Amino acid sequence: MIADILHKLPLSEEEKTYPYYPRPSLAGPERCIRQLVYFGLDMPKEPLPGRTYYVFDDGHWHEELSIDWIRKSAFEVHSQQMKVDCGMEKGIHLFGSIDGIITDIVAQDYLLEHKALNHFTCQRYWTGKELPKDYITQCCLYLRGLHKVNPDLTMAILLIKNKNTAAYLEYLIRYDRNTDRAEVLERVNSQGEHIDMAEVIDNVTSDAFGKFALVQDYIDRQTLPKRQYEPDSWQCEYCGYNRICYANYAEEFKELKTAQMLPDEIADMVRYRKEVSAHRLEMEKEEKDLAFQIKTMMKDADTREGRAGEYICALSLVERVSIDKKLIPQEILDKAKKMIRYEKLNIRKIKEGGANEQI
Predict the structure, then answer these.
(1) How confident is the model over 260-290, as pLDDT tens digits?
(2) Confidence of residue 14 (pLDDT cuts 50, 70, 90)
(3) pTM for the full model?
(4) Residue 309 carries which DSSP code?
(5) How far apart are CA 23 and CA 209, in angstroms?
(6) pLDDT digit string (tens) for 138-152?
(7) What's 6-211's CATH class?
(8) N or C: which end of the chain has fewer CB within 10 A?
(9) Which residues, 6+ apart, have CB-to-CB distance to 210 below 8 Å?
(10) C-alpha to C-alpha distance for 307 and 294, rounded to whole angstroms
(11) CA 335, 336, 338, 344 torsion: positive or negative?
(12) Contact 185, 196 (CB under 8 A)
């Protein structure tokens, strides 16, 4: 009665549209510049699924919940949603609204920036595989603006909440206005782990202003920059401009030049790639052979779980359901089809007096 209609309700309301303007939340290096140009050109984009509105809405409530819990600690939270003038550079003037400022028991102030993210994104940050550069840039732009009213406020806490598990991850960031340098000092998670990072990002806010200036130049000239990501990336998959961005992709691809002399740097990378590939295939084969031998010896001993030295070895039965497409009417299959684009790299080694060798 209710579950099947809730996601449809936002779609029945008049959709709010916001014009493009440079702002800190769009400033980071990972934000696709081509997407921003489409936004600035007011190009139509695909409507969001109804559930996406709930994802955006519950992000706001996650922030409120987190701040409510912070208030129950020794920290004081104030200046929520305060407007900040982040300055002007390269003809671009940036304004934003901060999530708040927190003050600790020794009267030290920190900018607080809160993000509520999905589990998979949080895991990439939690394990240190990626650095949230867009959010770090946003923090530094706010600190740049706050420097005008409080030069002593140089530290930010980027607090990330996992919306699936309620786990928290924070980054302690120091911003130097004079050198325009961001230092990511530490990463802390809600399990009490403190990881020293000492990551440095130079020209962090200047690069953001430069990016917006470049976007404006493309908008003024009514042209598009090159795509920042590959077509099968998650950034493209979830972009509202995906369809218009790749509408003429096949034709563009055919127009790329062939029989060109490429830089020696590419030749070096190809040689290294061949070496890596050879080791990977060799190790994968050895891994499969060892797994087969271990499973065989365990079954010979009528065992599916046991201890081997400092390891526990366990066999589990995995069942996978597959779909027999022959049993599905063709018209249903046609409706379920989805175009997936990706660029495949083929490399051939040139042989004198013979056919090229595929690598």
Answers:
(1) 888 899 899 989 998 998 899 899 999 999 9
(2) very low
(3) 0.77
(4) T
(5) 10
(6) 999 999 999 999 999
(7) alpha beta
(8) N
(9) 90
(10) 12
(11) negative
(12) yes
